[in-house]
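Please review this one:
***
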Amino acid sequence: MTKREEELAALRSGERPCVRSGQYWSKEEREKLLRDFESGAGISELALELNRTEPAVVQELKNAGAFENQSRHRGRNQPKPSGCPSCCQCPVCTVWDCPNRGKEFWDAGTVR
């Protein structure tokens, strides 16, 4: 295991606390974060360099608009569509003519 990998393992396990954990990001840190991320640096590498946790780095990149979530937010209490029987459990649907049978989510749409 390399020294960098050992540092990362200690950071993830909590053996080594982040020096900057809980502190505000400075303008210089944000600029360095974006510059390094755009040049190909990984999240773990950035976390070690900036003495931050990996989730903090990801959150700051999201806040800066460097990337977006790749999945949409799912609402938990959405009503089922009108064509779907009330007894339907679409991911494991037993109603053969249900329009949502076989879809991972009942509102997943169609594949073209």
